[in-house]
Amino acid sequence: TPNIAVALRILFTLPVSVASGERSFSNLKLLKNDLRPTMSQNRLSGLALISTESPIAKNLDFTELLKDYASIKNQNNSVNINYFNL
């Protein structure tokens, strides 16, 4: 019946969505430990994103990143450069 097919589709998709959420919380717990109690929310969010998206982070070209950072004249300005091709 159609209802059973819909129920099975929902059942098979739930573990995938739950696993990614659990992985994110696991990464966050590892990042925010007793050694980093004064970490700002912005830095914690950035580290959590890099940790969760580690395959993308491993493909970053740090040479290009450093060249762009060095070319900024006023380093007091915030740097928002998108290196992720999303």
TrEMBL record:
Residues 2-54 form the HAT C-terminal dimerisation domain. It comes from the Eukaryota. Keywords: Signal. Transmembrane segments: none annotated. Coiled coil: none annotated. GO terms for molecular function: protein dimerization activity. Pfam families: Dimer_Tnp_hAT. Residues 1-21 form the signal peptide. This is HAT C-terminal dimerisation domain-containing protein. It comes from Chelydra serpentina (Snapping turtle).
